[in-house]
Design brief:
Length: about 170
């Protein structure tokens, strides 16, 4: 077993979210989903696993990959990770042309459907189908305000600040 890989799993998942797996309607659910996405993305990169588009703007992991991840987790003795994660859908919004330091995906659950309609006249699903959101667009929907173009570096810093605040709030409460 690769100790570096195990450490990456541990750091990614448990620095980003440490707690019980929340119910679907819990305010902590987006934090857990983000931690799981970041962890799976690290593992996918390490294992050279491909993702495939399911047609609705989201991506699924290859089943072999999920089985590989579960085997690694079992070999490492990790019991914290949900064993049937493969059947838990995590809906993600793609960040178009994500600049350096910006996440490639953010959880749908932190976005406002109403503000997607206000700013774009489209649902979040439709926006995801067309390729996702620019950093400034995602930020406007998260902050529930009108959409105004801002530099990517500023938008990335603000987006990461929101995600970190969510993570911190989840750790405190």
């Amino acid at each position: 077993m690769n100790k570096d890989l195990i450490e990456k799993i541990d750091l990614s998942l448990w620095e980003n979210y440490d707690g019980p797996i929340p119910d679907d309607d819990s305010k902590l659910r987006p934090l857990w989903e983000s931690a799981m996405m970041w962890t799976l993305d690290i593992l996918a990169k390490e294992l050279g696993v491909k993702k495939y588009d399911v047609g609705d703007g989201s991506e699924n992991l290859e089943q072999d990959y999920v089985e590989t991840v579960l085997n690694i987790i079992n070999e490492a003795g990790y019991k914290k990770v949900l064993p049937n994660y493969a059947i838990v859908p995590v809906k993600r919004m793609r960040i178009m042309n994500h600049p350096m330091g910006c996440p490639e995906y953010i959880p749908f659950s932190i976005l406002s459907e109403q503000w997607a309609q206000n700013n774009h006249g489209q649902t979040l699903d439709r926006l995801n189908e067309r390729g996702g959101l620019a950093v400034y667009e995602a930020l406007a929907i998260i902050e529930r305000r009108d959409c105004h173009n801002i530099p990517d570096t500023t938008g990335t810093a603000m987006l990461n600040k929101h995600l970190n605040s969510m993570i911190k709030a989840g750790d405190e409460g």
